[in-house]
Specification:
Blueprint: H1 6-20, E1 44-56, H2 65-71, E2 73-84, E3 87-96, E4 101-109, E5 145-151, E6 154-167, E7 172-181, E8 187-197, E9 203-215, E10 235-236, E11 242-246, E12 256-262, E13 268-270, E14 273-277, E15 282-292, E16 297-306, H3 312-336
Parallel strand pairs: 10-16
Antiparallel strand pairs: 1-2, 1-9, 2-3, 3-4, 5-6, 6-7, 7-8, 8-9, 11-14, 12-13, 12-15, 15-16
Helix pairs in contact: 1-2
Length: 346
Amino acid sequence: MSTGPFSVAFVFCLLFTLISSGLFVDFAVAEPLSRVAGVKAGNVAKYGNFLALWGSELPDAVPPQDFVDVNNTVSLVNTILDVSGTTVTFSSATVYRNGTERSEVKSVDMVYGSGLGNLTILAAGLSAGDGVYISEGFSQSRINSTSLRGYCGLMRETNLLNVTQVLSTTGKAYWTELYWDKATGLLVEHFLSYAELSEAGYLTEGNVSYSMVDNNVWVDVPDSVMPVAEAGPDRTVDAGATVVFDASGSSDNMGIAGFLWDFGDGESAEGLTVSHIYGRGGAFNVTLTVEDGAGNKGLDHVIVTVPEPINYGLVFLAVVLTVSASVLLIRQARKRRPRGQGRRRR
């Protein structure tokens, strides 16, 4: 095993090379945004779930050392030491399965991305379309989207950056996904995949992933702000059809810990996205309750209308009774007609 956190460093060095080589559709250089830190001295972020998968069709091939190191990594802990303007300085401590540790101090400028800690911390509050940094090497790398994702027991608004590149001259292809917490700018998850085809046609593939497993940034913080629940629009569905409910439009300043759906027919379910089947007609008041880590709750309602199903047996019976009644009335009318009427004598 290497003596330092070569695995994570390798991933970030490779990623920086890919981004700075220009992998995206040509965007204009981002205008300088108001870049502010979402972290402070004393904040700690711990990463785990380190996993490296590697396979090759090449005869006698062995995994690269950096992939071995990833699987031998127990944890990586980043501790914020100082925030000075737009520069964040932090210590990075890696613990390996054999008990050895390695620590180093890194820094990152949230405007230009300079420093060994780039891509680990971004400015707070970035949204889709914003550049991760505004330096030349990162000018084309923009946040792709923002969505609710779960980390450390909370659903947080999370920014995603996709990076892809195919190097036709070497037969290599790279794909990575980076996720940052929108409110703090902290990296929360990283996935990297690559594939290489040799001149002889042998395929080699590898994947590396890890994610945040704990922090002191989102928990044990006084919070009296109620979360905002978003249950979606009212709708009309048929009885027996599957109805999908999605609470991904909900939000909270610290993150959502739970989603509870009351379907209005005596049944309920928990989750960001759930489904339900109504077996009878009616207008059902569906209630979504979202709760944050501090116990604050927010509610939203949606009306689901289920038309009463047509009972074709009753419809047929009604038609038969109507026809029978009509026939009976006609017969009674004929019986009451005076004799001699109805025919004209010639």
